[in-house]
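lol ok so funny story. i was supposed to be doing the assay writeup but got distracted and ended up predicting the structure for this chain instead. priorities right. anyway since i did it might as well share w the group, maybe its usefull for someone
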Amino acid sequence: MDKILSQDEIDALLSNVSKPGDLDAQLLDGANRFHVYDFKHPDRISKEQIRSLRTIHENFARISATYLSTFLRSMVDVNLLSIDQVTYSEYTLSLSVPSSIYVVQSEGLSGRIILEISPILLLYMVDRLLGGTGETQIEPREITLIEQNVVRSIINKQLDMLNEVWSQVVDFRGSLNSFETDPQFVQIARSSETIVIIFFEVKVKGFVYTMNIGIPYFILEPILPNLSSQAVIGTGKKKGEEDKAMLHLTLQATRVPVVTQLARARITIRDFLNFQRDDVITLPKRVNEELPVLIGGRVKFTGVPGRSGRHRAVRITQTVEPVDHLFHQ
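and the output, tada:
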């Protein structure tokens, strides 16, 4: 026979039941402790591998900032902002039109990746390389073919630095494949394919520009085991090599004075004080004799003068060895 509850037992049960408003409040409080997870687009790269990618591209940002500061003769700061995983269609829709998209062919990753740079930043580079001050903010527009050729050396150097930082994980061997201004014409992966986006910000002369690298998941998948903390821990150990690479890049972009010395003679103070118009100074250098070429004030080459087109020029004939330098003083 079923037990019949007394009134006191019924009241005790009712007192333990929360009101609807209280239940909703509890659910709202607990919602803050949950992380939204999209089961349609799950993260396919682990947090440890993301940390390894961050380490690699932080090195790229540091080396890139050093090179751009030297080459553009302005203080440039490059910072890695975030690394996200989205579908390729979401990524292309987020890009502006016109864009500046460099498609890079990577032999080491057996596929193509994207290097997207703000068009305004590229126009700033063009302005600086052609002698401008870069003080005025430029309106975004499509990059012309001539402007692409002007900045091509900078882009190729960026790819060299990308090859350098990736060399600890894989032989990247990235090279420029094509350039596009409309994201719709760039198809390096299926629309539903996951792509890893590394976002950078480039600060120069008070302005902030964007730059990002897009790597499809399917070309990263074969090397994911190499993207572990143990595999990339060598980054810190190779600090000396990294400093050497940065110094090498800085030296390559350093400008030094080059002077071809036509002749040099010694005279007395008496002769100098007695100089008159139409006086002649006899020089010890013969007309057909090779001239010393000075780099930074020191004789490094010898050459013969001439013309190259409309410009005066000197043709290098031989390199001056350290011992020979004494005879060209």
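The longest helix spans residues 47-72. The first strand starts at residue 76 and ends at 87.
back to the writeup now i swear
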